[in-house]
Amino acid sequence: MTSASPASPVDELFERTRSQGRAALVGYLPAGFPTKETSIRAIEAMVEGGVDLVEIGLPYSDPVMDGPVIQAAAEQALAAGSRTTDVFDVVRATAATGVPTVVMTYWNPVERYGVERFAADLAGAGGSGLITPDLIPDEAGPWIEASGTHDLDRIFLVAPSSTDERLAMTVDAASGFVYATAVMGVTGAREQTSSLGEELVARVRAVSDKPVGVGLGVSNGAQAHEIAAYADAVIVGSALVRCLLDAPDETAGIEAVRALARDLRAGVERN
């Protein structure tokens, strides 16, 4: 069991949304896609549309858990020369909007950058924490130490396939919130949300009162409304990325991001 720490910006967000009787809206966009400057503008539009917490993706060359939409965005960002230091620039600009900002990254780039250095630079840019989809708590010793030193939240993932023992250990090691992947397989927007989400949230709540966010598959306000009825946060990624991928130009893409964020926020507000 990790020692208690002061309330983080993520903790304060969930205290606020719980007091308002609604789920938080979490929006994901990759840093540097299609350019660093445009990714910052798109994230600002997402916040203006009503996103409560921003999840910034660190582009990676081998995104094994990401679907084709996020893979395509990561490839464009890397082709444009996006580097880890650019991610911290995007974090700094996002945090300046006043919303809690976390980075989603595979573990290999953090190890290459240096775990302590990464934590220090993330905190220095105003970041609130890190989502690590391929890092399990029992292999996270260096990150648990570095995140504790720099007051960063550790957001671990649980899945429908998680055993009760594994789920309890992961939830205990997590801070900020627990990321519940409600479908099996790679990420991507879906026509229907998974029926496994509500059951997985219930399993987490049986062992902890930490907030639970549900991700993978949400693409519109109606689906956000459905998940907000039982989760503490609705996490949306691929649908927002697609707004930029499918747009005829960057300005139209940014407007599409803002419009989708508004629709998603209306969905979580209806509860």
Secondary structure blueprint with pairings:
Layout: H1 9-19, E1 24-30, H2 36-48, E2 53-57, H3 68-79, H4 84-95, E3 101-104, H5 107-113, H6 115-124, E4 129-131, H7 141-149, E5 153-155, E6 157-158, H8 164-173, E7 178-181, H9 196-205, E8 212-215, H10 221-228, E9 233-236, H11 238-246, H12 250-269
Parallel strand pairs: 1-2, 1-9, 2-3, 3-4, 4-5, 6-7, 7-8, 8-9
Helix pairs in contact: 2-4, 2-12, 3-11, 6-7, 10-12, 11-12
Order the strands across the largest sheet as they lie in space. Answer: 5-4-3-2-1-9-8-7-6
Number of discrete domains: 1
H-E order: HEHEHHEHHEHEEHEHEHEHH
| Average of per-residue pLDDT values | 91
What oligomeric state best describes the polypeptide chains here? single chain
Secondary-structure-based class equals alpha/beta
- The CATH homologous superfamily is called Aldolase class I
Indicate the radius of gyration in whole angstroms. 17 Å
The parts where pLDDT drops under 50 for at least 5 residues are 184-193
In what range is the share of β-strand residues? Answer: 5-15%
CATH class label: Alpha Beta
The major beta sheet can be summarized as: 9 strands, parallel
In DSSP terms (H or I, runs of 4 or more residues), the helix count works out at 12
Shape: globular
